[in-house]
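Q: what does this look like with zinc ion bound?
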Amino acid sequence: MHPLQACVEKLGEDRSGDQMYQLIERLFPICRSITGNGLRQSLDIVGEHLPLLRSEVATGTPVFDWTIPKEWNIRDAWIKDPSGQKIVDFQQSNLHVVSYSVPVHGRFSLAELKTRLHSDPAHPEWIPYRTSYYQETWGFCLPHQQLQSLPEGEYEVCIDSELTAGSLSYAECLIPGASQDEVLLFAHICHPSLCNDNLSGVALLVELGKYLRQCQLKWSYRLVFAPATIGSITWLSRNEKLLPQIRGGLIVSVAGDAGPVTYKRSRRGNAQIDRASACMLAERGQQERVLDFSPWGYDERQFCSPGINLPMGRFTRSPNGAYPEYHSSADNLGLVRPEHLQDSLHTVLDILHVMESDTRYQNLFPKGEPQLGRRGLYQMMGGFTNIGELQHALLWVLNYSDGEHSLLDIAEKSHMPYRLLQQAAGLSADAQLLAPLP
Ligand code: ZN
C-alpha cells in the first residue's frame, strides 16, 4: 500500500478534526498581525507540533518591490463614554482595534471620534476586521448597532501600541522525501481572532505535517507559516534559488466552514496539482467547485505572479470573501467544525496522494489484449465486490499504458476513480503485464 494511502485510511478513524479544532481554540485569543509578538507566540505554538525553521527579517529590508514594515505590538486599547464607562475594550475582542493603529491617548467629541470608527451596517451585531498596515493611522471597529447608539459628549480614547524598528517573523517545516523536489504548502498566520480565514489553514497544515512526517515520501514537503502578502513576498524573495525545485503546491485557508471544498487553479491552469485536485473533486461529484485562476484572493497573488508563476493552487471550502462571516467577529469558534476540518484534511491528503503516486507504465503485451484469465486476473477479481468496475479499470490501464499516459491521464480519460486504476495497475504489474517507468 502506498504510504500516503495508509495515512488517508487511518484518518477515517482518528481524531484529527478534534485536534485541529483544539489548536484553533488555543490560537484564537492571540492578537496576531503581519509582525509582532502575537505572530511569534502563534509560531511558538505551531512549533510545539512540528520542527520549525524560524526567520526574522529586519524592518527596512527590501523584499522585491516592498519593504519590511515597522513591527507593531499592542498591550491595550479602549474607549470610555462621556460618563467614564469603558464601552469598547480590546481585552474583550482584539478586532476592536484597527490592526497597526499608532498609539493615541486623548479626548474627542463624538463627531471627531466617529471619523475613527468602523462598522458594518449589513451585519449590525458583528465587529468588522480592519487593517492599516502601510498608512500610519488609528481606529476602532465596533458593531454598527453600538455605533448608532453612542450619545453626544466627550469620549476618552486610548491605544497603547507601538510601531518600532523590529522584524517580520515566519516559519517553515521541511519534511524530507526521497527526492529534493518539493511540494510547497502555505498558510497565512497574520489575522487576529478569526477562525476560518487564517486559523483553519494553520491547523490543517500542522495536522498534515504530523501525518507526512510519519510517511515515506517521494517528494519533500515544505510547510510555510507566514503573514499574508508581505510574508509570502518575503519568503519568495529569500528563496528564489529553491523555486525551480517546486513541483507543485497549495495555499490553504478557510478549511473549516460548512461550505463545499473549492479549488482554484494555478496561473498555469493545467499543472499536475491542478489536474490532481480537479480529479479528486470530480470523484466527489464537485467538479463545478474547480475555479480558474484570477489575480485576486490570497497568496496565490504572489506565488502565481508572472515572474514567479509556481504551479500552486488554492484550497479552501467557501472561497475567501464569499461567506458572510468573512473578516468579522462572526468568523469565530462557532463557524468552524471538527468534521469540516477533517474532510478538508482528507481531501488535501487525497490530492497529495495523486502527486506522490502518479506513474506511467509500459504494457509489455501491447499487441491485442493480453489473456487475463491465464494469468489469474479473472479469478483474483472474484474477491472484489466491484468486479465490473475493476475489469473496466484493468482494460483502461492496459490500453493506455503505452509509456505516454500516467494513471492521472487515464483517470481523466476514463472518469474512473484514481485509486481503482492504481489498484488495477498494481495487479497488472504483479502479473508482469505492466512495467512501471521511472
Ligand atoms: Zn483574510
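The longest helix spans residues 338-357. The chain has a mean pLDDT of 95.
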